[in-house]
Amino acid sequence: MNRQGITLALLIVVVYSFVFYFSFSTSVSWKSRGEFDHLANVTIRGRVVVDMPIELELISGVSPELDYHGQSEGSLKAAIMKVLESENLSPEFSHVRPVIVFPGGGLPSRINDSVVIIFVPFYGHENKVFYENCYASILVYMSSSGDVGSYLSVEERYSGDSSKTDDLQYFAVDLFRTAKARADLDGSPYSLKVVYWNVLEVRRGKLADKSCWSVMAGEVGNEIEEWARTLRPSDEP
Known about the structure:
Layout: H1 3-24, E1 26-38, E2 42-44, E3 47-51, H2 54-62, H3 72-86, E4 90-93, E5 114-127, E6 131-143, H4 149-158, H5 168-186, E7 192-205, H6 212-228, E8 231-233
Parallel strand pairs: 2-8, 3-4, 3-5
Antiparallel strand pairs: 1-7, 5-6, 6-7
């Protein structure tokens, strides 16, 4: 084989290796990430209320191009259920954030169960020939004491101006400080965690085993699992 033939053969090998790599590989990255916590073993009733973003619940109908194969909401719910149930906790997907607040109406302060609230101000999906990208900015708030008032009060301060949540660090720091101060004042044992990602991105090859949204949901689930391990279900109903 002459030199031209060898060069061509090597080029073909490189191209096929490149295609193979992108078709089967999966990578996870983020622009920035932060975590704030006060983790302690606490006894709870056993149920954890999970408030999913309405935007994710509506995405398949409103923006189907962003919800490849309808997997964003389902993958996140499945990952959270798996984590909580593995710790003998009962997840309940329900909204604690009011969709509409009427004039004169107050915001809820606390619920009787532990709570997880997920905030997703930004998300998207790109479908390429050999791979797909899904990305989102995500904040997860976890409170064993069911303190929803702290979250709602901070969210209210950051709502109405998307530039305030371009970097979720400020939201997360404000939220953690508010919730921790309230819990310390209450005096009861508590387990609290706030974690955020600015543009969490998953690049998944088209032939990889897990879906793009499933891999992203797994990252969120891992953070919730650390907090869930501190919760001890009570024998009392």
